[in-house]
Specification:
The chain has 436 residues and is an alpha+beta fold. Among the domains are: 149 residues, no CATH class; 128 residues, Heat Shock Protein 90 (2-Layer Sandwich). It is built from ten helices and seven strands. The strands form two sheets. It has a five-stranded mixed β-sheet, covered by helices on one side. A hairpin with a 5-residue loop joins strand 6 and strand 7. Helix 3 packs antiparallel against helix 4, helix 3 packs parallel to helix 5 and helix 6 runs antiparallel to helix 7. This is histidine kinase.
Length: 436
C-alpha cells in the first residue's frame, strides 16, 4: 500500500501497509525494498547454481546457466509490482528444476496481493500440476537409471506430498497475511473516517454554539427591551405630567410622584430579576417587591418571580390610563389558562404596542382587544391618529416590532403591524392556543 494525495493506493503484493511512503518506486518503505533486494539476491544465486548444473548435465556451457539463473532469480525484486508475472516465470523454469526460493516467495506474494482469487487459484493449480509433472518425470528417469522400481502408490504419495509441500504452505500464509493486512487497512480507514466525522461534528458544534450565542444575545436584548422600555416610557410620561401640574394641582402632582416611584421600583425589580437569571450557575434570586406584570422569561431558566399573563392586562391598561392614555380593553370568548409561553407572548405584544403609543401617538384613542378562540388566541392593539399633544421625546430604536414578531413566530403564530385606515397604527398577532 502507498499513499498518494492523502489517499491510500493498493500496490499488488505490497507489504508497506498504510504507512507513509519512504522507499523508492513502488516500495512503501525502505525496509521493504531492502527485503526484496535480499530475496532477489538469494534467489539469483540459487538459480545461477541450479542453472549451471542443469546446463552441464546436458552438455551445454555452464556460464549460460549462470547468466540465465541470475536473470530469472533477480525477477523476485519486482514481486510486489507484478506478482503474476513472477509466478509465471517461476512456473516456466520448473522443468529446469530451478527457482525453489523464487517459486515459494512468488506464490506467497501472489496470495497476499490484491489479485483476484480466481487468478490466484488458476496459477496455484498450474504450479501444482507443473510440480507433479516435473517430479514424476524425474522419478521415472532416476528409477530407470538405477534399475530400482518404486511402488506406484508410494510414488504417487511422494509426488502429492512434494507438490503440496511446495505450494500450499506459502499460499496459505500469503492468504492469511493479505487478509490481515486488508483488515488493518479497513480499520485504519474507518478510524480516519471517524476522525474526520468527529472533526466535522466538532465544527458543526462550534457553528451551533456560535448561532446559539448570537440568538441568546438577541433574546437577551429583546427581554431587556420588553422589560424596561414600558416602565421607563411610563416614567417619562409621568415626569412630564408632574412638571405641568406641580403648581396648579399639588394633589395630582403627589399622586404622579408616587406612581413614578412605583414604576421606578418595578423597573429596578425586573432588572434585578433578569440579571439574577442571567448569572451563570446562579438561580434567579427573589426580585424586589414589584407590582403585577413584573416578569422575565429568563435566559434558559424559569424565572422565580411572578409571571405575566393575560389576566394582568387590566393592570397594564390601568397603568397606561394613569399616564393619560385613553385606552379601552375588550375581551371576547371564554378566558382559559394557556401555556406560559403563549400567555407571556400575548402580554408582551400588548405591552410593547402600548409603549409605542406612548412614544409616537400621545393622546390617541387606543383599543386593546383579546379574542379567545378554540385553537388560537388573537390580540389586537389599534390606536387612532395622535391628538396633537406634545411628544414626550422618548427615543425609539425600531426593535420593538421586530421583537414582537420574533416572539410570535417562534410559537408558530402570525404577526402583522402597520398603519390603519383611520390614520393610526395597528398591531395584531394570532398565536396557537396550547393548553397549560
Amino acid at each position: 500500500m502507498t499513499t498518494t494525495g492523502g489517499r491510500r493506493v493498493a500496490v499488488p503484493g505490497g507489504g508497506g501497509g498504510g504507512a507513509a511512503r519512504s522507499g523508492p518506486w513502488w516500495w512503501g518503505r525502505r525496509r521493504s525494498f531492502a527485503l526484496d533486494a535480499t530475496l532477489a539476491a538469494v534467489s539469483a544465486a540459487e538459480c545461477a547454481a541450479e542453472g549451471a548444473f542443469f546446463m552441464a548435465g546436458r552438455g551445454l556451457p555452464a556460464v549460460l546457466g549462470v547468466v540465465f539463473g541470475l536473470a530469472v532469480g533477480a525477477t523476485l525484486v519486482v514481486r510486489r509490482r507484478w506478482p503474476v508475472a513472477v509466478v509465471l516465470i517461476s512456473l516456466a523454469v520448473t522443468p529446469a528444476q530451478m527457482g525453489l526460493v523464487l517459486g515459494v516467495v512468488s506464490l506467497y506474494t501472489l496470495a497476499a496481493s490484491d489479485v483476484p482469487r480466481r487468478v490466484v487459484g488458476a496459477l496455484v493449480s498450474m504450479t501444482i500440476g507443473g510440480t507433479l509433472l516435473v517430479t514424476f518425470v524425474e522419478m521415472h528417469r532416476d528409477g530407470g537409471r538405477s534399475g530400482y522400481a518404486t511402488p506406484s502408490w508410494m510414488g504417487m504419495a511422494f509426488l502429492v506430498l512434494v507438490a503440496i509441500g511446495l505450494t500450499v504452505p506459502p499460499v496459505l500464509l500469503g492468504l492469511y497475511v493479505g487478509a490481515r493486512r486488508r483488515l488493518v487497512e479497513t480499520l485504519r480507514e474507518r478510524a480516519d473516517d471517524l476522525e474526520r466525522e468527529l472533526a466535522l461534528l466538532a465544527e458543526k458544534a462550534g457553528e451551533r454554539a456560535e448561532r446559539a450565542r448570537i440568538e441568546e444575545r438577541t433574546r437577551i436584548a429583546r427581554e431587556m427591551h420588553d422589560v424596561v422600555a414600558h416602565r421607563v416610557s411610563l416614567m417619562v410620561v409621568h415626569a412630564a405630567a408632574l412638571r405641568s401640574v406641580a403648581v396648579r394641582d399639588p394633589e395630582r402632582a403627589v399622586r404622579s410622584a408616587e406612581l413614578l416611584g412605583d414604576l421606578g421600583r418595578q423597573a429596578l425589580g425586573e432588572l434585578r430579576q433578569m440579571l439574577g437569571v442571567l448569572r451563570t450557575g446562579e438561580p434567579a434570586g427573589p426580585a424586589a417587591p414589584v407590582g403585577p406584570g413584573t416578569v422575565d422569561d429568563g435566559a434558559g431558566q424559569e424565572p422565580s418571580g411572578p409571571q405575566p399573563s393575560l389576566a394582568q392586562l387590566g393592570v397594564l391598561v390601568e397603568e397606561s390610563r394613569a399616564a393619560g392614555m385613553a385606552v379601552s380593553l375588550s375581551e371576547e370568548g371564554d378566558r382559559r389558562p394557556l401555556a406560559a409561553p403563549v400567555e407571556r407572548t400575548a402580554y408582551r405584544v400588548v405591552q410593547e404596542a402600548l409603549t409605542n403609543v406612548h412614544k409616537h401617538a400621545v393622546g390617541a384613542q387606543t383599543l386593546v382587544r383579546v379574542a379567545y378562540r378554540a385553537e388560537e388566541i388573537a390580540v389586537l392593539v389599534e390606536n387612532g391618529p395622535p391628538a396633537g399633544e406634545p411628544s414626550a421625546g422618548l427615543p425609539s430604536g425600531g426593535n420593538g416590532l421586530v421583537g414582537m414578531k420574533e416572539r410570535v413566530t417562534a410559537l408558530g403564530g402570525g404577526f402583522v403591524a402597520g398603519p390603519s385606515r383611520s390614520g393610526g397604527f395597528r398591531v395584531s398577532a394570532v398565536i396557537p392556543a396550547r393548553a397549560e
